[in-house]
Amino acid sequence: VLLPIVVFGCNRARALQIHIEALLRIRNNSDLNPILVSLDCHSRETLQVAKSFGDKIKKIIELPDLGPLIVPPKDHLLSGYYKISRHYGYSLNYVLNTLNYEAIIITEDDLEVSPDFLDYFQALYPLLKYDKTLWCISAWNDNGIDKKIDRQANLLHRTDFFPGLGWLLTRTVWNEIKDDWPQA
């Protein structure tokens, strides 16, 4: 199944390099898992890192000037979250609706991926398509402390809390939620 990987980054060039190198180590098929890098912050160093991978990266998306960021005065300490939300909203819409991908794997530049990260999403994509009560599939566990991990290979957990970082989203779900995408 075609599941492009969208890597979100900003100004952490070294983290982006490490993350892409890790993805390339576990990616078996560049046609099934093309890598797209979405960059905010206009960091030359980070852009150069992305470009240094050449044709191993299918596309580099640089966030265009979307006009001034409007942050209510009471939320001025949250302006970073407003920027991140705008970056995600723009790029998710661009990749799913302009580039017309059916589903995408979403990562951030500082995420460590396991050897079976891409296999996990390939295996669970049919479940996401079949079960309309699922919003996304996530491979991230905020409580992933070794002693608390259940190692049953056939065990999945459902949650009503959004476990961001390393998740699979369909265009159908994105189009259902995009108009309600939070500002922060």
TrEMBL record:
<comment type="pathway">
    <text>Protein modification; protein glycosylation.</text>
</comment>
<keyword id="KW-0812">Transmembrane</keyword>
<protein>
    <recommendedName>
        <fullName>Alpha-1,3-mannosyl-glycoprotein 2-beta-N-acetylglucosaminyltransferase</fullName>
        <ecNumber>2.4.1.101</ecNumber>
    </recommendedName>
</protein>
<dbReference type="GO" id="GO:0000139">
    <property type="term" value="C:Golgi membrane"/>
</dbReference>
<keyword id="KW-0808">Transferase</keyword>
<keyword id="KW-1133">Transmembrane helix</keyword>
<keyword id="KW-0472">Membrane</keyword>
<keyword id="KW-0333">Golgi apparatus</keyword>
<dbReference type="GO" id="GO:0030145">
    <property type="term" value="F:manganese ion binding"/>
</dbReference>
<dbReference type="GO" id="GO:0003827">
    <property type="term" value="F:alpha-1,3-mannosylglycoprotein 2-beta-N-acetylglucosaminyltransferase activity"/>
</dbReference>
<keyword id="KW-0464">Manganese</keyword>
<dbReference type="InterPro" id="IPR052261">
    <property type="entry name" value="Glycosyltransferase_13"/>
</dbReference>
<dbReference type="InterPro" id="IPR004139">
    <property type="entry name" value="Glyco_trans_13"/>
</dbReference>
<dbReference type="GO" id="GO:0006487">
    <property type="term" value="P:protein N-linked glycosylation"/>
</dbReference>
<keyword id="KW-0735">Signal-anchor</keyword>
<keyword id="KW-0479">Metal-binding</keyword>
<dbReference type="Pfam" id="PF03071">
    <property type="entry name" value="GNT-I"/>
</dbReference>
<comment type="similarity">
    <text>Belongs to the glycosyltransferase 13 family.</text>
</comment>
<comment type="function">
    <text>Initiates complex N-linked carbohydrate formation. Essential for the conversion of high-mannose to hybrid and complex N-glycans.</text>
</comment>
<dbReference type="InterPro" id="IPR029044">
    <property type="entry name" value="Nucleotide-diphossugar_trans"/>
</dbReference>
<keyword id="KW-0328">Glycosyltransferase</keyword>
